[in-house]
Amino acid sequence: MAALLRCDRVSRFFGDHPVLRQVSCELHSGQLIALVGANGAGKSTLLRIFAGALKPTAGEVWLGDARAGSAAARAQTGFLSHQSLLHPSLTVDENLDFYATLFGLAHPRQAAQQALAQVHGEHLGPRRAGELSQGMRQKAALARCLLHRPRLLLLDEPFASLDAATVAELRARLAELRQAGLALLVSSHQAEALADLTDGALCLERGRVVHPDADPVVLGGIR
Predict the structure, then answer these.
(1) What DSSP character marks residue 70?
(2) Which one, of 19, 3, 33, lies nearest residue 203 by Cα?
């Protein structure tokens, strides 16, 4: 089966400083791959390139037949960054309706309801985003990423600042999304949060893909 996401020799420089160097990898539908590495390894930069928010200095990224950053690729990609992108003074329903309209969805309210149901967050709809706990806000932000039914889901440190119960709930949602056929790439410093969920890991060190012999699971999903 052809890969959904194909990354071919991607490099990214900021000025003269290399952040990513010759990164190649593939991700298939129904896979969950952990993106691991120390601070400054290039994880967030790589996710932003995959999401189309940043262009590579060299190399190519394709989502199916669409180049990353194109309208066709964005329509298939959900990206959860460090910010929820929810307006604090609006309710979760109002936030999701806004984004569904922004995405050009034919039935914004229906899409918002379905996305909240997908993360088991129907009860969050009437709540103002600014009044939510970190865990509730993360759940609502994940619903925002799912509004347009993406095929690829990119998550940058989704477990940060969450308590154990919320981590367990988020793990369950990610497992459901993987089972539903989405491709997921999840960056996390908390290896235990992704235990037993992944098909492998993409390990970065100083912007390069590495294959530590001590952890054979990192070989999965890496070309």
Answers:
(1) S
(2) 33
| Domains in the chain, CATH or no CATH each | 1-76+150-223 (3.40.50.300), 85-149 (no CATH)
- Specify which residues 78 forms β-bridges with: 153
DSSP string, 174-188: HHHHHHTT-EEEEE-
Q: In whole angstroms, give the CA distance from residue 109 to residue 117.
A: 12
State mean pLDDT over 15-43: 95
Q: Rounded to whole angstroms, how far apart are CA atoms 114 and 139?
A: 13
Distance CA 222, CA 101 (A): 37
Q: What is the mean pLDDT of the chain?
A: 92
What is the predicted pLDDT for the residue at 138? Answer: 95
* pLDDT tens per residue across span 127-184: 999 999 999 999 999 999 999 999 999 999 999 889 999 999 999 999 999 999 999 9
- pLDDT tens sequence across 90-127: 999 999 999 999 999 999 999 999 999 999 999 999 99
- 3-state class percentages of the chain: helix first, strand second, coil last, to nearest 5: 35, 25, 40
Residues 6+ apart with CB under 8 A from 92: 86, 116, 121, 124, 125, 126, 127, 128, 129, 132, 140, 143
Q: For the sheet containing 183-187, what is the strand order?
A: 77-80, 152-156, 183-187, 32-36, 200-205, 208-210
